[in-house]
Amino acid sequence: MNNQNNGLSGDKPLSDPKDDRLGYAPFAQHLAKSLSSMSTSEGLVVAIYGPWGSGKTTALNFVMHYLKDYVERGEIISVPFNPWLFSGTEDITRRFFDQIIAVLAKRKTSSKELRKKIAHFADMISETPVPYSSVGKLISKLTSPKEKDIVHLKTEVETILRKEKKRLLVTIDDIDRLSAEEHRQVFQLTKAVADFPYVTYLLAFDKEVASRALAGLQGQSGDVFLEKIVQVPFELPLPDKVSLRRLLFESLDKLLENTPADQFDQSYWTNLYFEGIDHFITTPRAIVRLTNTLSVTYPAVKGEVNSVDFIAIEALRVFCPLAYDVIRRNPQSFAGYFDYGMGGTDRSKLNEYHDAWIKRVNVEDQVAIKKLIRRLFPKLESNYGADFAADWRRKLRVCSEEKFPIYFRLSFPLGTITNSDMLALLTTTSDPVSFSEQLLRLSEEKRSDGTTRVSGLLERLADYTEDGIPEGNISTILDVFFDVGDRLLKEEDEGRGLLSFGNDARIGRIIFKLLRRIDEPERFVDLSRAFRAGRSIGIMEDTVVTLGQQHGKWTSDKPNTEEERLLSAEHLVELEAITLEKIRAAARNQELLASKHLPSILYRWREWGGEAEMKSWVQQAVSSDEGMIEFVERFLHRTYSQTLGDVATRTVYRLDPKNVEPFIEPSLLVERIEKVLGKKDLSDNQRKALTEYVKEFKIRAQGKNPDAVLRS
User: Fold this and answer.
1) By 3-state DSSP, what share of the chain in percent is helix, strand and coil, each rounded to 5?
2) DSSP state letter for 447
3) Of residues 454 and 350, which shows the higher confidence score?
4) Nearest to residue 147, comparing CAs of 121, 183, 165, 174?
């Protein structure tokens, strides 16, 4: 392996041209020669334009290296100024003049009179809060008749500079790091005092960034304003790709020392690099970012991953986090092989999924990303079968389902819901199968706080309901929620306390925000279709209740106006009828007992279908011990309390038989429950429900209120 030092250490710029590997030295040498041979006495502003990370600081350092002899002989007085050192906390204008005075104080040839005049001038200029004013305010400070002292001082400074002929070279770097307001301050300052004789400014910055920051000053575009400041602009010559690759490869050589040869396939690396990674290696800083990341992450997995694949995956993490997160969150769509038996339809769906999420990548990166992931994951390219799995596993490839998790050990905790997660999910909202699969999968994955990932995702999804979801996908989302929504209602996602809510409320919020985006007739069509095809009776009942409350049903609140209601009275009645039929069907199919909304559903059934029909079903449902246990369990209520001095909340379980009374006579169940409690094959939740039922029944039998007794 090649151990040659390539001069890239962290993000540290170079200072000696002998270390130049990217062709900056010739440019810097010619610029230095021009600056040293200037004959004009007028002030001048020279700029080096270059994008972030392109090596502007290195170029400035090389210029000063070539001017070193002139500085040592006193022919040029170097005034380095870095405004970023004072960003956010200091007056940059004041610090700028302080730096000039400090440098002049070290030069025996500079007069005290010059330093005194500059200091006085700085004091008066600094009285104006430049960062929050237009450039005109500062200039007016110099030209207003009321401020003749400032104009006089400026003239005196110019006179001394012309007399002493001290050529000052003010270099200003790290402008790119400043805020927009601080950008403006630096350029306003430069514009106001750029005409000092024998003073040359050498600025290095990203022209696009500066132009955006300066836009609007004096009613001009940023580019026009820059043209008024900079007399001599230079574009930093970007390093050629060959030089950048050489630097990167030398860094990677050092990183991969002692890596087994069978883990590095040269042909595979060449194809992978040129089809994807090379696209992102455009500046020295890009090399530093990637190699710095690898220096931390690779040692932790060395010997457990394919080194080529790991470099590619980390390149995605550094340069395209969205693609990295989509891959990490969806191993089933990337790793493994594509079974021939899955058929062309499934292959088409897989391609549609990948085409959808990759559209969210920056346009200029899409081709490179697509080529890269197709190299990394053969499943996306061809119908590789099970016979390839062993070879991928042996070579420690990321496409191996067994090895895939190793590549992401140092990522965000798996429970985290990132922006990339949301973007990936949004790509599935046009496909009911993919969307429901994603939701159900997330409902089984836990976050660090014990809740499921789907609860966090539902919270975030609500943020996209107004403009992040295409209107054409609304019907798909409704179909999915009314089909699998009940399966997303997890106990661990129920909040603690009176002000908290569960996934049913989260789903309801999304549904109603989406419904408001479409007209009433279409709302009813979408809802009635989703209700008829769906299986989530709980979400349906909850939705109908909310729609009914807008008409004044089941609430003491004032009814909404006709314009505010999402459904007309006629359509509401039709939707209630559809819901009643779904309740009856669930009752016939022995599915109704499983609903977490059972008590509320029974109330609706009693109202819409009649009390006799509802009670007949309840009698039949509780006729077996198993049915009775499940029925009673649905009425268990969990609350949380916290007394003064407690650190954590205390869980309190309640089940007042009076709540069962509208559906069945509570006394009919007590003796059976007491017998069942002697059984050992009860879950903790079932035992709590049955125990609370008996306890609170006996309290009421004594003529007491369980609320008062248990609260005391």
Assistant:
1) 60, 5, 30
2) P
3) 454
4) 121
Global pTM reads 0.50
Look up residue 301 and give its two tokens.
């997995």
How crowded is residue 110: how many other Cβ atoms within 10 Å of its Cβ?
20
Whole-number Å distance between alpha carbons of 282 and 123: 44
| CA distance readout (Å), 213 to 206, 223, 291 | 11, 10, 31
Give Cα 591 distance to the centre of its chain.
40
The residue-averaged pLDDT of 216-231 equals 82
Say whether domain 23-235 belongs to CATH 3.30.43. Answer: no
Q: Which tokens is 45 given?
A: 């502003």
Confidence of residue 487 (pLDDT cuts 50, 70, 90): very high
Distance between CA atoms of residues 559 and 463, nearest Å = 27
By C-alpha distance, which of 319, 270, 279, 311 is closest to 294?
Answer: 311
Cα gap 700→688, rounded to integer Å:
18
Domain boundaries, the chain: 23-235, 239-411, 622-711
Q: Rounded mean pLDDT of 652-678?
A: 92
Give the integer Cα–Cα distance in Å for 242 and 228: 37
- What are the tens digits of pLDDT across the range 504-515? 999 999 999 999
CB atoms within 10 A of CB 644: 4
> Average per-residue pLDDT in the chain?
84
- Which of 424 and 334 is assigned the larger pLDDT? 334
- Interatomic CA distance for residues 104 and 107, integer angstroms: 5
Amino acid 72 reads E
Residue with tokens 């060395």: 302
